[in-house]
Records
---
Amino acid sequence: MAFALAFLNALFEAAEDAGLSVTRASIPTALVVAGVQVPFSLIENKRSLTLVLGDNVGDAQRLWADTTAAALEDQVTDILAAARWHAQAIETRDRAIADRVTSRLAEEVERLAAKLKKGLSEFQG
């Protein structure tokens, strides 16, 4: 538990230093990168600590484990870099969804307008 708290403290400080923020009210907790929330979860068991980053966008979630010999600061830097990548992927996905919705709405409006025009012409004729 002590390592998990130390890790989270290091992650939150590094995120703040990098101009990112951390949501504290959402579940799961998220790193906020340029307004995009990148969810993450920290799982601790008796042998290791694992961080799950992202929401299955692109190449899927990134799993980080404390089993590497790299310094904690280097590992946190890697996680923040991955968070930036995930934020871009999430933003791209959300933009594509919004574009599809807009396109479908426009098609539906055109279809309804044509139907209304046809109905009016039959009524008048």
---
Amino acid sequence: MKRSFLIAIYSLGLLFLAVGAEDKQDWSKLESELRGLQSALSEPEILLINPILQQIITHKNTNLLVELAIQDRYSLVAVAGITGLARLDPNLAYQVALGRVWLSTNVSSAHILPFAAQLSQDLPVDRFVAVFSPLALLSPGDWGSAALAVQQVPRKLLIGWLRTGAGRSSLTTVSLVIDNLMPKLSSFEPADQQLVLDNLAALRSAPGYPSAIWLLYGKTSLDELIDGLRTVLGDNSIGISVKTLLLRKHYKQLAKVDNLPFSDRDKRYITELARKYGE
């Protein structure tokens, strides 16, 4: 379902044509052959020495390379597909890679890294906006995969997207971009700094992950902080790593407050942080 959605939303215009008998392959057999290449993930280009892949590249069959790249069951076949596609058509490889990482539900897999590596390309801003904006309307496979995708993109492209495309996306996507840009805010031009801060402010009243990003970087009163944290800490859609980061950032203020409306576990953690690092 996600794979079909990815192809549709990108309007790749790819009809996976029936290939001739000489090109038809058993992907499970190809996967087994590729496993013999020990350095495949650190040097994915080595996968392309396989005779089947050499034939596909020689024939410039980008349709078939896309088909390989979107395989879910055969991870090395997929890596070979995106590597070969990057050689023949870097723009198409970028589209496929961005969708694959964004919709991934297994970001911890090393097999996703060759896809993520494609996203560091320094595209023209309008090209990036055209590719990224459709995905910005979709819920990612998980927050880790979406964060990985955004982390790979050059920051100037994210700034360009905020300037032209953020108003037509979900606040969750905006918050992922803001989370990536805020640590480097001082390095941006003044106008770009203000753009980032304006988009951060837009997260203030949003629920879920956007609210967590606002509390992480925004300027709040103590009452607003406590009220916001109470909601975020009780939100099961927000990962424990984000909640821990928030408590680590604000524990000095929180440790001075009696009767915090948090769980006993969270209050104990705040106390432990204050004891370990001081108030």
